[in-house]
Amino acid sequence: MALQVEHPLWLFGFIPVAIVLYLYWRSNTRLTGGRKIVLTVLRALIFTLVIVALAGVQMRWSVEQVDSAIVVDRSHSMMEKEQTVLSQINDALEDKAPEDKAGVISTGREAVVEKPLSDHVRGIQSFETDTNRSYTNLASGLQLGGSMFSANDTGRVVLMTDGNENIGDAVRQATYLHKRGYVVDVVPFSPEYKDDVALTSFDVPETIYLGEQAALSMTIDSSMDTSGQVRIKQDGQTIVDQTVSLNKGSNQLAFHHLVSTDGFHTFRAEVISERDQVVENNQLAAFAETKGLPNVLIVEGENGAAANLEKALDASAVQAKTISPDLLPRQLSSYLTYDTIVFSNVSAHMVTGKQMTLMERAVKNFGVGFIMTGGDQAFGVGGYFKTPIEKLLPVDMEVKGKKELPSLGLSIVLDKSGSMGGNKIALAREAAARSVELLREKDTLGVIAFDGTPWQVVEPGPIDDKEDVLKQIRSITASGGTDIFTPLTQAYDQMDPLELKRKHIILLTDGQSATSTNYRQMIEEAQNKGITLSTVAIGRRADGPLLEEMAQLGGGRFYQVHNNSSIPTILSRETSLVTRTYIEDDPFYPKVTAGAGGWGSYFDKGVPQMNAYIATTPKGRAQQLLTSEKDDPVLARWQYGLGKTVAWTSDLSGEWAGDWPQWKNWSPLWNDIVTWTFPQYQKKSYQVSKQIEGNQVTLNVTAADNETSTLHATLVRDTGEEVPFNLQPKAPGAYQGAFEANNQGVYFLQITEKQDDQVVGSFKTGIVVPYSQEYTFTPTNDHLIEEIASAGGGKVIDNLDHVFSSEGLPPRYDKQDLFYLFLTLALLLFLMDVAVRRFRMNVAFVSKISERFKRKQEKVHEDTKRRAAQFSQLKQASTKRENVPSRKAKPTAKKQPQEKGTKTAEQVKSEGTDHKEKESKEDRLQRLLKAKNKK
Predict the structure, then answer these.
(1) Are 566 and 428 in contact (CB under 8 A)?
(2) Which one of 185, 415, 456, 513 is most buried, counting C-beta atoms within 10 A?
(3) Sign of the dihedral through C-alpha 380, 384, 390, 393
(4) What tens digit of pLDDT does each residue of 878-917 get?
(5) Which DSSP category does 385 fall into?
(6) For 432-469, what is each residue's pLDDT tens digit?
(7) Beta-bridge mates of residue 209
């Protein structure tokens, strides 16, 4: 243990302190005796403690414990080594000293803490964290390992890996850790070789002409002689499915496919083999664009709903394809093959939230057009409130500023049993919240959540505070069993006495009731009292037949939900239908607005009569071309991102549109409406090249004319997620951008050129990202492993036997700052100083000690003087003796024989001499003085 000073310059403060204390002692004459001494000593100690505290005096001692962070590579290539790794870690933990600390980190694409740094870690049975095995990011693991140690600690980071890094820079990170005082050791492993059939390349021409036999070529590498199934899909549809023989080594295969449709296409190739042990490298994607006639996708909610539109488009050079909502694509590339999408009386619950998102991306980011036409399942009554489709349309689903409407009572009976946990209950809460937003404050709302027993979430009554009601709804959590009858009875009992024009109950459940009570009598009696019931069955476990029968008896609608994302749209539709504020069914003649957007010539001779439409609210930037007598939009359009969208709030069949389908200008008008939504931007040509390092993809974009322009780029995955991406200019006509590709497949790149904030050109292409190199067999990277160990100041080791040894680690010290201790003591001494000065404390003991000290000093002084006088007298006596004449010597006596037992004179004299030598100087001095006085 030792002391160290952090700020030694403060020690020079003792010089002025000494001067001040000296001047205080000399100048302060009012204080005398013990009080002055005590105050001087106290102040000297106070100054000393303050200076020592400011100088940063610390206690420092050596620390013997060893801290080790073990970083485990858990990427795909290390999967077979996990049990060996666990065994080595557990053996090392058993041998560590009790005070040693250990931590374990798993790393794949990113690093996560498996066990935090602690001296209580005794063993690991298995790895419990999830990590993306598609990549190896050793740098991330080393960084997280170093962050486990305290700021002043030294420790060891042990990396267990095969060295096949494909993300990050582990050598650079190891160098940084070594500079911070840590040591990086590496335990190498050899990856297991497996039987593998890998699709290493798949090529499709980027541009294919309509009717061309496109060549689809691929390369398959196999580690053995085997057979495999080769499948190729175009836009999700299988076009090739063959069994082929594969030889050990590289196999080249080629297929031909007749391309009969226009647009942007994605191709996916896959090889399947029974002996293949690595399936992650069996798929690759490609893209191609086919140029031809414009394509329109028409989606009908009911058969024949868009027949009049199909006839109108037959006369034009437009290829139209009509499908039902259940056939809507589930990947972005399929929507990009069309120039415009038309929804004809399609209910929102027939379309998943994912499909809506894909269409919204196609319109906003890639310029695909969109048209929605009305009917009893479209717009607000279709449940599109707060959906991606509402975002892209020129009208809002919510009706604002309408006339006074009949009073309404709505009760939502919501299943909150344990099976509704997770995504289901979250979507159910969102659905109830949307219903609240669609209701007026004077409308009556009640919400009952149930499991084995009912829970009144919102008491039936007017919605005075929507925010409070929404807060209560969002507090619902899932748990318990299922009992439908009791909460439904409670909802009916609450609705019965209310004086309202319309009373409706919505029952939503994913299970079966625990009781077998007969619902018929209760529902029929309520129906006779004007209380209607709609039911929603979520999933296949729900009692669909019972719920459907209940809806029929209750005069409502039954919904079978197989995709949870449609739950909010169903409740929005039900709320809209029960309010009956959306359908305007009084015949009228639409009004033509000024200019009519270039279509005004069609209305020069008047407009046909219309029977009904769906009431909506126009958005701020929308252009209304036809309006109703109530100034509601009938035909509206606007620009949404790169795409153009149109809202026709009546239908296409004629039931609502009245005489419009028989009108002579019907076909030319709709041809103009559809073609207006087509992308109108000039096609620009750019060269796009890519570089892939790990999951980082760098795109270099070069303009054909090398002119400097303002480019905006959007990158979207085939699943619809937008990927952060920016293009930055590098040189005239040259741009560069990078993005993180965490999934293989096709990424769609849309480039738009702007001048004065106006889009003047566009370019669309696909970026193919293959599977990670993690899924190709690569031997141990010994060179990288040695570089990491060298950069980290450590070494390559065979095992973890000495992971908790202090060998190779710099000495580690711990310290304790004494600042507050010294400051506290100084404060206490200062209080004592105040007490001595102010309270006249008795310090007589100090005076007594001082007097004793003075007496002792005086006695020593007197003794010294007395001895000096004695020496002076002795010196004078010696001088006189030398001046006296010596006497005559006596004759020498004859030596006589000595008798036994007697002593001679010489012996006696000798003994006297010895005796005199034994005398002290002080006794001798006294004897001489006495002899002198006798003379």
Answers:
(1) no
(2) 415
(3) negative
(4) 666 555 555 444 444 444 454 444 445 455 445 554 554 5
(5) T
(6) 888 888 887 788 899 999 988 899 999 998 888 888 88
(7) 291
β-strand partners of 505: 411, 533
CB 834 within 8 A of CB 39: no
321 DSSP β-pair partners: 297
In sequence order, the 6+-apart residues with CB closer than 8 A to the CB of 254 are 215, 216, 217, 218
* Pairwise pLDDT comparison (497 vs 833), residue with the higher score: 497
Question: SS3 string of 198-246?
Answer: EEEEEECCCEEECCCEEEEEEEEEECCCEEEEEEEEECCEEEEEEEEEE
C-beta neighbour count of 76 within 10 angstroms: 20
For 689, residues 6+ apart whose C-beta sits below 8 A from its C-beta are 699, 700
For the ranges 305-319, 365-379, 579-593, the maximum mean pLDDT occurs at: 365-379
Whether residue 877 has pLDDT greater than 90: no
Q: Please give the pLDDT value at position 614.
A: 93
The CB density around residue 635, as the number of other CB atoms within 10 Å, is 24
> 610-624: per-residue pLDDT in tens?
999 999 999 989 999
Put residue 580 in one of left, alpha, beta given phi > 0 → left and psi -120 to 50 → alpha. left
- Rounded CA-CA distance 521/471 in Å is 35
DSSP assignment of 313-334? HHTTT-EEEEE-GGG--SSHHH
Q: Residues of 471-495 as b/e, b for ≥16 C-beta within 10 angstroms?
A: ebbeebebebebbbbbbbebbbebb
Q: How confident is the model at residue 706 (pLDDT cuts 50, 70, 90)?
A: low
Best CA proximity match to 501, nearest among 479, 522, 531, 472: 531
Q: How many other CB atoms are there within 10 angstroms of residue 315's CB atom?
A: 10
* Total residues found in the chain within this entry: 935
- If one counts every other C-beta atom within 10 angstroms of the C-beta of residue 396, the result is 20
**To 10 degrees, what angle do helices 423-438 and 466-473 make?**
160
* Three-class SS of 153-175: CCCEEEEEECCCCCCCCHHHHHH
